[in-house]
Amino acid sequence: MVQPKMNGTRNIIAVSPEGGAEFWNRQGEQADDARPDDRGTQMPSDLLRSGWTRKGVAVNGHGDPVLSDDPAAIAWSLSGAVNAIFGPNSAEWRSYTGALQALVGHNIVRWSRDPDRTQDEVVAVALEAERSSDGL
Questions:
Q1: Could you give the CA distance from residue 63 to residue 126 in angstroms, rounded to a whole number?
Q2: pTM of the predicted model as reported, rounded to 2 decimal places
Q3: Nearest-5° Cα angle at 23, 17 to 27
Q4: In this structure, is residue 126 part of a structural domain?
Q5: Helix residue ranges per DSSP H, 42-90
Q6: For residue 63, what is the DSSP state?
Q7: Residue 9 placed within a domain
Q8: Structural domains counted in the chain
Q9: How confident is the model over 100-126, as a mean pLDDT?
């Protein structure tokens, strides 16, 4: 078993000698990498709570970048979680993205990837956007 290490001061990840990545929660327990099959009732905050990344829109269990809707994705960026749940350019996506921009400014990706950003901050903003979005 690979011991977890802090990636900077925010993300906890361990990479095995074979190149596989293990994701850990803030309590130092190995995170569940099982991805829910039914996202019909999920919101972006749910995905971000289960796993968050600054590396691309999503990553798989090896830490490799994947598309946000890839079944192998286990962690998402803020924009990746929005794309995975609503689908780019849908009415829900536009409403949610508008709410995010009102909260963090025009560049959601830059805000989310700030080196000092924490997963808790990203989840909190996602929750606030869910509360303030029209039609969700």
A1: 23
A2: 0.71
A3: 125
A4: yes
A5: 44-50, 78-86
A6: S
A7: no
A8: 1
A9: 94
